[in-house]
Amino acid sequence: MNLCGFILKMFGWEVSITVPDFPRCIICVAPHTSNWDFVLGKLAYASVGRKAGFLMKSSWFFFPLGCLFRAIGGIPVERKNKSVSLVEVLTERLRAASRLAIAITPEGTRSRTDRWHTGFLAIARNAGIPVVLGVLDYGAKRILIETVYGPSGDTEADIRAIKDYYKPFTARYPDKFSTDDPSTL
């Protein structure tokens, strides 16, 4: 067991990462209600000897934190810049890389939202790579990456299926996590 695994075990966390070590993939991570999700996710993935990049809003990339985040795989996202398609940029980055996993939180916020972002599905479809579903289950103190999801091309059906997958899991702050369908509210 490496240091990351030891730290997680010391705090009572169980890690199960059984998906293949794909050379390129999107890791869809939920629930996301706390900054601790980032720390736990990085530790869990590193505990099995894997590395993943991650998206984070650009305002976190100030000196000296920006240098640290980039060094550990951080990709700044400028939320207000609509002239550049993040889907296209990440699709090209993944196509060009021989090895790259990117963790994305479809909620896009730590606050409660029913409207999950779907760009990760388009990125995976366009780059021809799998989506693996990562879970931070605070209720059972488990971190799981055991399911591979192949986007069908029907974005609404895909996001519904993914939300259904995450329903049984408990967020750090359960009142901030929603798998509700925004069209039924």
Descriptive report:
It comes from Candidatus Amulumruptor caecigallinarius. This is 1-acyl-sn-glycerol-3-phosphate acyltransferase. It holds the Pfam family Acyltransferase. GO terms for molecular function: 1-acylglycerol-3-phosphate O-acyltransferase activity. Residues 26-136 form the Phospholipid/glycerol acyltransferase domain. The protein has 185 residues and is α/β, with parallel strands linked by helices. It has one domain (3-167). Helix content is 32%, strand content 22%. It has 6 helices and 7 strands; from the N terminus they run H-E-E-H-E-H-E-H-E-H-E-E-H. The protein has a 7-stranded mixed β-sheet, sandwiched between helices. A hairpin with a 4-residue loop joins strand 6 (131-137) and strand 7. Helix 1 crosses helix 2 (36-47) and helix 4 packs parallel to helix 5. The protein is globular, with a radius of gyration of 16 Å.
